[in-house]
Write a structure and sequence with these properties.
2 copies of one chain form a homodimer. Chain A is of the alpha+beta class and about 800 residues long. Chain A is built from 18 helices and 30 strands. Among the domains of chain A are: about 170 residues, Aldehyde Oxidoreductase, domain 4 (2-Layer Sandwich), CATH 3.30.365; about 240 residues, Aldehyde Oxidoreductase, domain 4 (2-Layer Sandwich), CATH 3.30.365.10.
């Protein structure tokens, strides 16, 4: 039982409660994109480039068109005439839906076949004859800017290199001075390799452009249906009021499903061309090879400190590999603000960062996979280099952290990059994690094992996230601001519906958003229906990513619910013939102060509002309220993690034995769901630390094209998680909530890596790049770790 | 070109414009209930009583259940256990979904079969063995209260007769005094026979109770989806937030589709019992025999006047035949307020009315078929008796009307029954109709023809309607008040959606409501999508009937649109950095007063509201607005009609040669649609006057069970309508609109009947009951007309 948990009672408000959506998920009755079948529906398949870099000489589709079951073969030429040649992208890059001049990465879309069934569409792909003039690929980000490197984006006028941008943050002079005065400086290169969110469900869409009504309906695997709709309207000029984007049940997103993929556009084009609904669903290999990857940050960190462990400064230099295009959360034309809280959770007097973006012949990265503005990469860098510093100083890494963590009195804290952390009690969280772990005892055990020659490691990490994208006037997507709408309608019988601008990819919104309404209005959450994921049915908002559902949309729902209560007070005052101030609110009912027997329940008030009750001046009928919430600031959840590993000396195999995670995301709507989110993120972290990487060979072949190659953690690799919490409410969220969706994914990889490197201390290892596969660990023990992003070894 | 018509321009605002919905209707692409097909859907059929009055001794369903394709056979017993035994009725009567004790009219529902296909379901009906003990039926309303008449409603405790209520209105003493002082008194009995709205589409529903989510979706032919939802929740206890009622394209309603029919409930029960979706669709005969009829008013009128034609008083006595139950707009427990403006359009010093309701063994009537609170029947009575008076006085009926019509200075006019007519310029409308008709010339022509022995008639009628049901605190359905919600959302690109609580049965709401938004906001109407007919998608409201869409829901939309403009002004003031008062509104844009070059269009403002524009204090993002409109009063459209007929002396065949209709419904949103509505209503009037009647034989068999028996007018029976308008805005509607859906149906039957009787003047005929079929006219010429409601003649 943790602090925000409440005793089980009549299904009202916050508390541990089964997920509503599991009724269908557990029975296999979810409705995913691939479950949607429309009368007369056709099926599409995409022809993809086998080359990483090649000029397209010609495309001959005649044989495919002659296939008896093929209805259309679409190339770039078809798209041009429909004004749908370019992806409505959230970045400012210009990305062709189908390549026409060159292919720039393996798996890039070249043509689209629409046929009567999926099998015929696939078969016909083989009948398309593309003549490629193969070019040298640029695979190594560190060599992308070499003079003479092939220019990938020769489609951009005047572009003669692979450079995208340079960006800096912090105060260079101040940081140089801090380093000059330091007693100790530690430097370390490190790679956060390409990883893939690998959601359970791949991407897909069903598009239906009704030729009679002109209405375009797109069911697709998107985390941001409203953004998609407006982008189609802005970029392709389709009439916004005639576009409906539906995000049905989604089998995981993790940022992989934020942007618009060529396949979505192609299903739309397919429907326009054939006059029939068209379904397109990726297979696993297509998802892994061609949809947005994450990370691929080549980082160099330097930390300056006093000999007694007071951190003085941080210097970071990053080479960001964007792949061939700038996708989704990876902007082109403005600096990558996405590394903005690179300083993490510590109290640095000075910090400075540079980021350089480059193009390579790889699929576009930039997916917001628990990225929360690149906090994942930054947190990894900081937490690793703090461990390197501890090693250098001979200090316990937990002690070094405790010494330098931001103290509660520093909040609201203005970071060296100008971001204001809202609230935090960092030392309390770390102390709690250490207590839960039995930290001292663990160190004793480690010492004993080391003495016996056994490799046990203890890894500590601390993270601060920055989530809840807004405020609207500071952040935008193609000019659209980050405000979320919410509507609460109480029906005549006192049941309610809440409509959200965000939607779920499995996070349990149908449960938690009902609980928010319930918490405020007192209506049992079982009486509240949550509607989301359908632009026809929900208020505008830019979608679910960056853990923003609870901080922004949750706030919108809370405010709308409060407006319901405010309106209910006025109606109750008319019903009871007293002034509104004379009423007392006892969650779910109003009564005349001092006389609970006069109570009018929210249900009675709802009926009266739809009935014939005389209403006070200026109060309209029905019990509805709306809110468009513009967050005054981001929220800053945080946490302290401790990981305990054993490493097999002979094979390099890492066993995560224990994992203690103390998360502080403010009050918890439904502690069970928070724990589920944390469990998932911790498994992510184990995967990224130990197993996952998308590497490329010299020809630019993607080496992670199946789950045989791209390893994901299973229950076997995960320990029984040990979770704890502290509660530091956000001062600016109406209910103090902060969001937790990405926390564990951000915080856990450095804990695991720190633990493994701690285990390898006897071998003098200070750093090894992820993933720490048995081979990598074994080679690190030999003093010659791999470079994990390329299939190039020194063997 | 009439006064409110506007020059064709950029698709903004009111004006003549093609109907948006015709794109699908004309191509046969409408989606009606019977077009809905769900996976695994089953089909239901209803077993109906062959008797008008019989006790049910037993029902044996075993053979039907054994049919290999039958999935369920449902009787009253099944319903009891599901709490769905009673129809959630809009009246306060208790009507069984399936008869258990007795059947009370021919066609009453007795059992329901659910089978794999429609044919098997129908076949299995014949396998159900019902043992009936046949009772004497009560068919003649005028004998229903005879001592010893069989008691129909012995299900009501203590009920020993067929009496329902007595109701009076007006001042009896004052009226008696007026009559005592009169120089002339004319008395006339008349029948407004049973007629049927006979919509093109019969009733039907598809119900799907999803056993996983618990969500009940009902697609049904209803004019009032929200009312249906709440009634299911109130009566059956189903959770309101889990019920979705969808009214898809509807092929005409005319009041026939307001209430809940047993078939709807049975499809719900069928789905609950079988776990599959269940479709039920009536055939034509079922629709004619068992769904709500209209009228069946046996009326006695008396009018008192001075010798020079000043009307002094009106006395009305009505026997209202309700059939076996009180349905929909036919209340049981409170007086029939539905005859409330029985005095019509004239300035009576005194009026008094009594209405007595009785049960008969006929299908329940009470449908709101252009009933607008029984104005249809009242208008007929008044317009006929005024003609009788003119005949008695030897005055021209138009002249008599002109003399007694309410004069403009009498408005707002408080009627003898206490209703406040909002606005009117009655003499202007009549004068315009007479001018259009060339009234004097017509009378000359008639005189010439009469001289030649030809039968030509000229009929005049004037009507006042009372529509736009509200205000919410004065009118209710089971406690639910008459307020309508509307929501307008302007998307980022400046396109908009408007969500209505009402929906259409063919009236063109998708066109006209977009025009209302356009009129106020300046957004082109082609950029505005209208959403309606789906409780999941639209704000609460009690539906479309009594011509209330424009007066109530149209007002809600207008007010919400004004709120959009008000909000846009504030946002524009921030964009232009001036105070809101310094802005000028030029429909569609704001500019700084005196400088049109500064204009910000509504589209630019919409984008800014969704973007990063700083907003004024208290203004939330997005450009949305809502309104729940509670009308301060009803609206009172009116009109003057003139009909010219020729009657064949040999056969009694009536030919409507001309029909002049001047309607005043305030400003016209789309004159073309208004004219279409008027055309339809005029055809209704020709049908009712000349052809339509649902009669019964002595055993209670319904004699109007097919379109072979129940004659509807076709283009052959209709002249080329001559339409005119006057414009008297409603002072309390935000745009002055009044509603026109029922006007012509109310006003036209007396014009036709008056014309025929005028033609028959040479035969000394003062009154003949509708319908004026050739046989009836011929017999009237012989001095012995039929009683049209019974299949009993003197032959």
């Amino acid at each position: 039982m943790t602090t925000t948990e409440q005793p089980a009672h009549a299904d009202v408000g916050f508390g541990r409660r089964p997920r509503v959506e599991d009724a269908r998920f557990l029975r296999g009755k979810g409705q995913y994109v691939d479950d949607i079948t429309l009368p007369g529906m056709l099926h599409g398949a995409i022809l993809r480039s086998p080359h990483a870099h090649a000029r397209i000489v010609s495309i001959d589709t005649s044989e495919a068109e002659a296939h008896p079951k093929v209805k259309a073969v679409i190339t770039g030429a078809t798209l041009e005439s429909l004004k749908l040649a370019w992806i409505p992208s959230l970045s400012h890059d210009v990305i062709a839906v189908l390549a026409t001049d060159k292919v720039r990465y393996q798996g890039q879309e070249v043509a689209f076949v629409v046929a009567e069934d999926r099998y015929s569409a696939r078969d016909a792909l083989e009948l398309i004859d593309v003549d490629y003039d193969v070019l040298d690929p640029v695979i190594d980000a560190q060599r992308a800017l070499d003079p003479g490197a092939p220019v990938i984006r020769d489609d951009i006028e005047g572009k003669a290199d692979n450079h995208i941008f340079d960006w800096t943050a912090g105060d260079k002079d101040q940081t140089d001075a801090a380093f000059a005065s330091a007693e100790v400086v530690v430097k370390q290169d490190m790679l956060y390799p390409r990883v893939h969110p690998a959601p359970l469900e791949t991407c897909g869409s069903v598009a239906w452009m009704d030729p009679v009504s002109g209405k375009l309906t797109i069911w697709c695997t998107t985390q941001a249906p409203h953004a998609h709709r407006t982008l189609y309207a802005l970029v392709a000029g389709l009439p916004e009021q005639k576009i409906r984007v539906v995000s049905p049940d989604i089998g995981g997103g993790f940022g992989n499903k934020v942007g618009i993929y060529p396949g979505y556009v192609l299903s739309v084009v397919g429907s326009i061309v054939t006059g029939a609904p068209v379904k397109w669903v990726e297979d696993r290999s297509e998802n892994l090879v061609s949809t947005s990857f994450a990370r691929d940050y080549h980082m160099h960190g330097e930390i300056a400190a006093t000999r007694d462990g007071r951190i003085l400064g941080l210097r970071v230099d990053v080479l960001a590999d964007h792949g061939a295009f700038n996708n989704t959360a990876q902007p082109t034309k403005y600096p990558a603000g996405f590394f903005h809280i690179f300083t993490g959770s510590y109290d640095y007097p000075a910090a400075y960062c540079t980021v350089k973006g480059v193009y390579t012949n790889k699929a576009p990265g930039g997916v917001a996979y628990a990225c929360s503005f690149r906090v994942t990469e930054a947190c990894y860098l900081v937490e690793r280099i703090v461990d390197c510093l501890a090693d250098e100083l001979g200090m316990d890494p937990a002690e070094l952290r405790m010494k330098n963590l931001l103290r509660p009195e520093r909040f609201p804290y203005l970071s060296p990059t100008g971001w204001e952390y809202d609230s935090g009690e960092y030392p309390r969280a770390l102390a709690k994690a250490m207590e839960m772990a039995g930290y001292e005892q663990l160190r004793k055990e480690q010492a004993e094992k080391r003495a016996r020659g056994e490799l046990m490691g203890i890894g500590v990490s601390f993270f601060t996230e920055t989530v809840g994208a807004g405020p609207r006037k500071h952040m935008d997507i193609l000019g659209l601001g980050m405000a979320d709408g919410a509507e609460v309608r109480v029906h005549p019988t006192g049941k309610a519906v809440v409509r959200l601008s965000v939607q779920t990819q499995g996070q349990g919104h149908e449960t938690t958003f009902a609980q928010i309404v319930s918490e405020v209005t007192g209506i049992p959450s079982a009486d509240i229906e949550v509607v989301h994921g359908d632009t026809d049915n929900t208020p505008f908002g830019l979608g679910t990513y960056g853990s923003r559902s609870t901080p922004v949309s949750g706030a919108a729902v809370a405010v709308a619910s409060r407006r319901i209560v405010d309106k209910a007070r006025l109606i109750a005052s008319a019903m009871l013939e007293v002034s509104p101030e004379d009423l007392e609110w006892d969650r779910g009912k109003f009564f005349v102060k001092g006389d609970p027997s006069t109570a009018k329940t929210i249900q009675e008030i709802a009926f009266a509002s739809h009935g014939t009750q005389e209403l006070p001046e200026g109060v309209e009928g029905h019990l509805d309220a709306e809110c468009v919430y513009d967050p005054p600031n981001l929220t800053y959840p945080f946490g302290a993690y401790i990981c305990v590993v054993d490493v097999d000396k002979g094979t390099g195999q890492v066993k995560v034995r224990r994992f203690i995670a103390v998360d502080d995301c403010g009050p918890r709507i439904n502690p069970m769901i928070v724990e589920g989110q944390v469990h998932g993120g911790l498994a992510d972290g184990v995967g990224m630390a130990l197993m996952e990487v998308i590497a490329f060979d010299e020809e630019g072949n993607c080496l992670g094209g199946s789950f045989m190659d791209y390893q994901l953690p299973t229950a076997l690799e995960c320990p029984s998680w040990e979770l704890g919490e502290t509660v530091t409410p956000s001062p600016h969220h109406p209910l103090g909530l902060k969001g937790v969706g990405e926390s564990a994914t951000v915080g856990s990889p450095p804990a695991v890596v720190n633990a493994v490197i701690d285990a390898l201390k006897p071998y003098g290892v200070r750093h090894v790049d992820m993933p720490l596969t048995p081979a990598q660990v074994w080679r690190a023990m030999q003093g010659r770790p791999f470079r994990t992003d390329l299939a190039i070894t020194d063997e």
